[in-house]
Every structure is written in structure tokens, then in C-alpha cells.
Specification:
heterodimer, A: alpha+beta, Enolase-like, domain 1, four-stranded antiparallel sheet, 9 helices, B: Aldehyde Oxidoreductase, domain 4, Aldehyde Oxidoreductase, domain 4, four-stranded mixed sheet, elongated
Amino acid sequence: MADGSYTVLAGGTDFYPARAGGLGGRPPESKVLDITALEGLRGIAEEGDSLRIGALTTWSDLLHAPLPPYFAALKLAAREVGGVQIQNAGTLCGNLCNASPAADGVPPLLALDAEVELASQAGARRLALDDFILGNRQTAKRPDELVTALHIPKLSARARSTFLKLGARKYLVISIVMAALLIDLDDKGNVSKARVAVGSCAARALRLPAVEAALEGRPFDEDLLPRIGDEQLDPLTPIDDIRGTADYRREAAVALLRRGVEALLSQEAA
Amino acid sequence: MSVALNREGKLTLYNGAVDIGQGSNTIMAQIAADALGLPVQEMRVVMGDTALTADAGKTSASRQTFISGKAAELAGRDLRAQILRLANAGEDARLELKDGELHVHDGVEVRSLDLAELPEDARGDVLCGSGTFDPPTSPLDGNGQGDPYATYGFAAQIAEVEVDLDLGTVKVLRMAAAHDVGRAVNPTLVEGQIHGGIAQGLGLALMEEYLPGRTENLHDYLIPTFGDMPEITSILVEDPEPLGPYGAKGVGEHSLIATAPAIFGGVYQATGLRLTGTPATPDRVRAALREAGIV
């Protein structure tokens, strides 16, 4: 790969539609490197303080893996990636490399503080996911690099997460807005950690530090709901398109974030 | 339409009505078999073969069951009349195909027709019944009066919907659909037509929008998925259509037409909002709710 002229093929669920011209993808004449035979790149394993998700791990692999409760958001997103056939073929890392603003996997992985592991002849490096996806279909991956894994830092057993996707139909839909929320609690039941990410509202999914700050250090109860508001959406730059207007996206983002907190509260109560 | 028997006792319906998934192959075979008086499972169907079948017109406007179905009935009756004449049997005689032989049971008598003795026609058949039907219509006069169509469909549908006021999403929970089909030749297929029409009507109401150059694919042009469909209760009303085969008439687009108004009526009942444009996508519903001062 060192000469950088290859397009890497894994699940192919974005590659083939793009090549057919539907999404204005890479030119068809580029050489293709199919990495699907590299069994060592597939699977989920514990590695010290983190979990390592190999680059060829599919959405279905993830759904069937026994994982801690804070992976709930990622599993909910996994069920939203196309249909089951797509989930059987498509990989988490492929979803990141494709870098669609509406990639279902990105908000939950941002909330999980995922790091992307890259390898090349020059050696391996890791990038925070937030530094890996740079914009609409742009990543920090150099042409000579291969994404080899994701690393997810472990959290306490009390950590919980959820994911909400809003679309104009139930299944197989590109989202209008989506939100992932992850919350960890301290011994007093206060929010010790809040990580919140919203997708389809900017060129890439983004964490919302103002929302996180509004939640952290507070008792984990319904008083959190009114603390989430439009004024905290600042990093988002939604656009008008056929799926919705920018104003609608902002309203919907606030509604989804509040519902996400409600969902986590009802889980805690159960 | 024609129904024919060959020397081996094989029964064939030459059916020019094109089945585009709605099930007209089954309907035509059922009607022709009933009119002939032989079991439908004996009927082989040749569909839409220009060398073998007559032109039955297009599959549209809920017309095939009514029009081609009537022709299929007449074809079946014609073949039956020919067989009864050859067997010198009465109207009430019972036909039986067994091991390639045709038996005519007339009272206590059984007469067998030796099909192998009869001359073959161009399609290799020895007996052929035909039927045509062109429904009586008249053009509209200067006052707009006349009978442009020989029959009409009648339907009533009720939708139960849930409107999310924060997000503007509309979920259709249940749909009751009552359709006057004249006579349900095949109730399962009628329900299939109703379900399919409701799926199309739900798409019209809530998501389908063709924007040239923009929604020319199936990820931007959304059609309903299984998860968008309501629970459906179909009510088949059988008020015989005098011109139709066994009183039947078609049920193609009727459930499509009634669905979007029923959904929008449900949204009005739930929220007080009168929607006036399709598709009512979440952002448009939310904007309309705001404009109407409901949220």
C-alpha cells in the first residue's frame, strides 16, 4: 500500500454504491485492496484498560458480542445501519473511513471516546476519533495507512449510554438528526461524566461540550432535562436539505438529547 | 381470453391480462375454472404471450378482474357449452378430468370424450372456448352527463395516528379499510391489494417525494418499510356488480386513494392541524404545528 494508490475494501457496503456513481465516490480506476481475508483484524478483545475492536469487525459481530452496558448506544446504532444484510457485511471502521456526516456509528463512538489505530510502513499511531474524521468524507488517514482497530477505554460498571435516531421512516433511512449520550455516576449518584454527540447536524458528528458541562456534577434526575437547550448546540452547523431544515434539526437535536436523558433515567430507575 | 383442452387432457388458460404481482393469474384461472366446471388446479396459465394470447389491455384502473375476469368467465362457459354439446349432456352435468380423459357425468350416465380423435388447432388444442368483454360505456354529453365507466369502486378507511409534537413525526398505528369489491374472488389477494395500496398511500402521505435530479434513488426517495406499516383490518363488502364476473369488480388503487386523506384526518383529530400538502415529512409537520400555534 506504501505508494498510496489503493482503495481499501472491507465490507464493501459503501464502496460498491459509491463506485456505481450514486454517492460520487472514488474514481473506479483506483486499485482495490481487499483486506477481508485478514482474520487477525476481526473481533473484539480486552486489552488492558480498553477494548480493542478489530478493523474487520462487522456491525453484526458487535451486536452479538457480550459487552458492558455503556456499549448500549453503539449497539442501538448497529441496528440502524442498513438492514441485517448490511450489518453482516459492513464494518465499524469502514463506517468511520467513509466519514459520512450521517454515519450512524460515529456519535456513539465519539461518546465512547474511541481512538482509531492506524498502521503503515512508518509504524502505528493512534488518533482520537474526533481528530480522525475531519469533515464530510474527509479523514486524517494518509493514503499509505490502514485503519487496523478501534480502542474504547473501559468505564465503570455504572456507566450507561443510549442512542436516538430520527428519520422520515422507521428502517433503512439516512438520519435527519441523531444523538448519542453516555453518562457515568459517582458514589453519590451524581453525574461524574457526561459525553454527548450529535450527528447529521454538521459536516461531521460532534461532541457538545456545553451540554456535557450542563449535566456533569449534577444529581442524576429529571432536573437535568431543562438544563439542555438550544444555546448549547453551538458547534453544530446544520443545513437545509430534503430531509429537513436547519431550524428543524436544531429543535430536533434538543428534543432527542432530552429524550436520551429521560431514557437513561428510566433505565436507572428500572 | 380463451380456455382450451389438448389431446392429453391438459387444460390451458390463454390469458392476455398481465399479472404485475396483484394476482390476476390466480383470479383469471379461478373464474375460468368455475365457469367451466373443472378444478382450478387443472388449469395451466399462459400469460401475456403475444403469439398465444389475445390483447387484454393494460393492467391499470382496477380493470382486470372486472373486464378480463368477465372475458375469462365467458371463455369458460363457452368451452363448457362445447363439451356439453359433444357429450349431448344437460346444463347440470359434472365434468371430470382423469388420467388425461374427459368424463361428463350427466345424472347416472357417464360419457367420455376421446380427445385424441379431435383435430388440433394452431395452438395444439382440440377444444377451445373464447370470451370477450367490453364494458358498456358512453361518452359524456355537452352537459357532462354519461357513463364513462361501467363500474366504480367504493371504499371507506379510518386511520389511527400518533403525532409527536416535538419532532413532527406521524406514526400510523392502525388502519381499518372497508372495500366494496362486488365479490371477493380470492379474499387473500383482495387483502393483499388493500395492504399494498395502504403502503403506497402511506408513502404518499408521509415520505414519498420526487424531486427531479435530487431524489432519483431509493435512499432519498423513501418508500415505507415494514416498520412504518400500521396494523390493518380489512373489511370486504360484497355488493354484487351486475356486469362483473360472479359479481366481482377490481380493487387496485382504491386503498391507495383513501389512505392519505385518512391519515391527514387522523392528524387533524389528534392535533387540530389541517395538513394540505404531501408528503407530510417531520420538519413540515413541525413547522405547520408551529404556524398553527399548536406548539
